[in-house]
Write a structure and sequence with these properties.
Number of helices: 7
CATH superfamily: AhpD-like
Helix content: 55-70%
Number of strands: 0
CATH topology: AhpD-like
CATH architecture: Up-down Bundle
Largest sheet: none
Radius of gyration: 14 Å
Length: 140
């Protein structure tokens, strides 16, 4: 299962900006309290050139939107909506706003990245994976 998720993760993120994928993975991991994934994806983001401001402000992104592009804000909003699903669905207004910013292909890929990181988070949290040992460029 884990190897299949790795292959899916590789496939769904192709063509999306690495910075966008990293922000989505970090934000979902924050929401899901997956310390292992948070450690991993924060390190990946920093290694790929993400600013410390973008990472440190991610938990308060709605008050710090000036650190992010319109596409990144849309991705973060969709990540929160899909990850939490508090209303049982993603509101039409949000989906339409995100669809107006992203191409159809990007939207499908973004949704797929969100679903995959949520799956990884659930494995990480439920199996109590220990953070702190990940090195960027290593295996997931």
């Amino acid at each position: 299962m884990f190897k299949a998720l790795l292959r899916l993760d590789t496939a769904v993120k192709k063509g999306l900006p690495e910075s966008l994928v990293n922000l989505v993975k970090v934000r979902a991991s924050q929401i899901n309290h997956c310390a292992f994934c948070l450690d991993m994806h924060s390190k990946d983001a920093l290694a790929s050139g993400e600013s410390t401001e973008c990472l440190t402000q991610l938990g308060a992104w709605s008050e710090s939107k000036h650190f992010y592009t319109a596409k990144e804000v849309a991705a973060i909003e969709l990540t929160e909506a899909v990850t939490v699903l508090a209303d049982g669905f993603v509101h039409d207004e949000l989906f339409e706003r995100v669809a107006a910013i992203l191409s159809e292909q990007e939207l499908v890929q973004l949704l797929s990245v969100i679903v995959v990181i949520n799956a990884f988070n659930r494995f990480g949290v439920s199996s109590r994976m220990v953070p702190g040992h990940y090195t960027p460029g290593g295996a997931h």
